[in-house]
Amino acid sequence: MKIxxxxxxxxxxxxxxxxxxxxxxxxxxxxxxxxxxMQEDQRxxxxxxxxxxxxxxxxxxxxxxxxxxxxxxxxxxxxxxxxTGSEFDxxxxxxxxxxxxxxxxxxYFPNGGRGEERMAYKMRFYDHYLELFRTLKEQGRHVVVxxxxxxxxxxxxxxxxxxxxxxxxxxxxxxxxxxxFLDAGFVDVYRRLNPDQVIYTWWDQRFRxxxxxxxxxxxxxxxxxxxxxxxxxxxxxxEYMGSDHCPLTLTLDWPTTGLSTVGASEDAFAAGEE
Length: 274
Fold this sequence. Notes:
Strand order of the largest sheet: 3-4-2-1-14-13
Strand content: 25-35%
Number of helices: 6
Helix content: 10-25%
Radius of gyration: 17 Å
Largest sheet: 6 strands, mixed
Order of helices and strands: EHHEEEEEEHEHEHEHEEEE
């Protein structure tokens, strides 16, 4: 099973950049998107990518033009969950897709850079979902978490660590949370496989940072320790353009023998809550 994750910084915007061709190149069985910045009534037929065998599910924010996540799948899932029935659902940040005992989350974690209140919200979000990930792991489920985490964990994960020590995304409390996440029995897959690789997933558009490769690695695939032996490959595809983030992929030794989503059960794509 090949899973991809990409903060596309607006689904309507990236559709104008030949997103169908980019998705075809990624060739993922399941493709999670963050920051779709649109509502269900703004969806158009070309967004569905039916020609690639996908079924699309959106989880928009209540606020128009803000946040929102989505998932494309060409495998028949057991169930899709939109949010977790919590205070965070109104911002449309979480989709979970289950395939048997495998639970895959696509998450757009909050940015904490707009003051103390927003940082407190971000830390509550972090803690809420860490507890959920722990619970699912303890229940014996295989857990995969992907998306834009809005934190660079280590100094190797951003170009200018010293000058960003007081910047949201590299604050001690944010980095400590990521460490606690890993200490709870989870693995940052790319870093485990590539301990010394300097590579980024996001570049600030305001300063043409991508041209100079002055970036941050804030997009991840994290899995529980029991799932790590199933990992066949993990890639950061920084040659892909179209957004201020690049996509990343994870390939698992997990069966993909379900139905094409062209004939998938509508019930599987019904919105659920934890």
